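ARCHIVE RECORD
Type: protein–small molecule complex
Small molecule: adenosine-5'-diphosphate
Source of inputs: curated submission
Record status: active
Notes field left blank by submitter.
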Amino acid sequence: MIVIKMGGSLGINYEAVCNDLASILKTGLQIILVHGGSSETNLVSARLGKPPRMVTSVSGYESRYTDRETLEIFEMVYCGKINKGIVEKLQRRGINAVGLSGVDGRIWEGIRKSAITIVEDGKKKVLRDDFTGRVEKVNLDLIELLLEHGYTPVLTPPAISYQGEAINVDGDRAAAILASALKVEKLVILSNVPGLLKDVTNESSLVEDIPIREMDNYVKYAKGRMKKKILGAAEAIRQGVKEVIFADGRIDKPISGALIGKGTIIH
Ligand code: ADP
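STRUCTURE (tokenized, with ligand):
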């Protein structure tokens, strides 16, 4: 069994991912697909007159400020348009996919950060009414039930807080904790870059191999959202996943390529 995380940035080739996924599933390997939806959410929220507000926490991580209205738009796009779009593409290829969010069956459970401290224009600010959080626990019952009956789960944020509120969580870290809980050997993270680059503007500066003990030497290359992805990967390895592969989701056969070592392998 493997876990695949498909990013939500512009450029990801959904058709290629679904084609590849369908041919791998036919070999008998079980796959759980996790996806994001950030760029589409930005588009839709701008069209609805509520442009995204990205905030940077005091520790330097960027996230989407998610008030109740943003959460609703987030769900419309992630759980609606993107999730059902992927399920449809897989169904068309003969895969019996089922799309769920982390709220369904409490698959991804965690804490809601009721107040976050951000830095804006050099000043610290506290934001309340924010529905973001962090997955701490995976409830596998529903996933196992689906897998046992031959369904392919397609999962997306939000997650659910211990109090039962939907929370916006980082999809990479959610995929990482899921991979650990399922004790899979491999987690493949597809995005719109070939992997971790030493220089973001130069695609041939790919880092091909990162042994976990040397992680500290590589984190410095990751900027913006890539930082969270790398830390999520390190977490997954420490919790028992053998390999996390960052690979290019824009190309043909992106998953098969990743499984034979195309990309950045963290182990
Ligand atoms: P997704 O939506 O696929 O989860 P993100 O957009 O969150 O992906 O993260 C991938 C982005 O991270 C790339 O498009 C790239 O601009 C950025 N990035 C920052 N630093 C690096 C780096 N060192 N190597 C590769 N990508 C990086």
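CURATOR ANNOTATION: The pocket of adenosine-5'-diphosphate is lined by residues 7-9, 36, 38, 191-193, 196-197, 200, 221-226 (CB under 6 Å).
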